[in-house]
Amino acid sequence: MLIQKIKYLIVTALLFGGAVVVPAPTAAVRAQDAGSAVALPSDADAASIIGRYQLGSGDQIRVTVYGEEDLSGEFEIDGSGTIGLPLIGSVTIGGKNLSVAQGLIADQLADGFLVSPRVSIEVLNYRPFYILGEVKSPGSYPYVSGMSVLNAIALASGFTYRASENKIEVTRRIDGEEQKIRIDLTAAVLPGDILRVPERLF
User: What is the reported pTM?
Assistant: First the structure.
């Protein structure tokens, strides 16, 4: 498509004596010209997704309480979605995004312990995702920021010959509830996702 557009611009310029201005190809166009229909999530898309990311069991995080080194540290969220912090004890942050979790910890620290505490949370290691069904190496794999379904399939050594490649389904926890969603190869993968590639009928 890009090549045809350039040809059109050149012919138009030659006919009417104008200058030829060739637009720079976008990442999506370059992918199409290279014979690929897949557009990986951009850095901005990945950042947006992680910003909305809900913490869960298996995530390893660093909690920083500014000016209070003894109250800061690295923690792993347990199976019930909680971490144990100095002074305030167990805090349930599973199912909450970073902003909400930070506010929750700050509120508890402000309740008789600190004056106007400032808290930040950084995810050190995301929980793995899972890919099942008609792939050559099903199982769990470490999450990498910006990963697409196509990347996940590649990590699992590709589809089997029986795979129904256009009917991939993800089970994802959204607002505390597990939901099943039909996705395509360009969709972003999140930590804790369970991808399932079904078998085609024929």
Answer: 0.65
